[in-house]
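From the shared-data thread, chain only:
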Amino acid sequence: MSNQSIESFPITTALVFADHEVREDLGLVFGVVVRSMGVAKGVAAGFRALAGGEVSQYTKLVEDSRRHALDRMIENARLLGADGVVAMRFDSSEMGQALTEIVAYGTAVRLGARSDAG
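Structure, as tokens:
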């Protein structure tokens, strides 16, 4: 799934859309990704962290992981027949010393007509 599909699938962190009516609540959807940086990149990132400043290897890993989790959440919402997600959030946790879990979750909804607001 590409960023183009994310742009064409309405998602909000709010409980409602400003410009769409929520017609039906389809329940919780989520997308999960578990990632490891790998030994070579991890060592390079560790040296960068010692020097201070942004650790670009970790920034890229987190950005890519969030996009992947978001794509999976959208895919799961579409399987339920949703055409939007409200109350979307990200969460992450460490799994041991080398793995990070990233979760995108929210409430899948079917949208009604566009409202005149906005």
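Residues 56-79 form the longest helix (24 residues).
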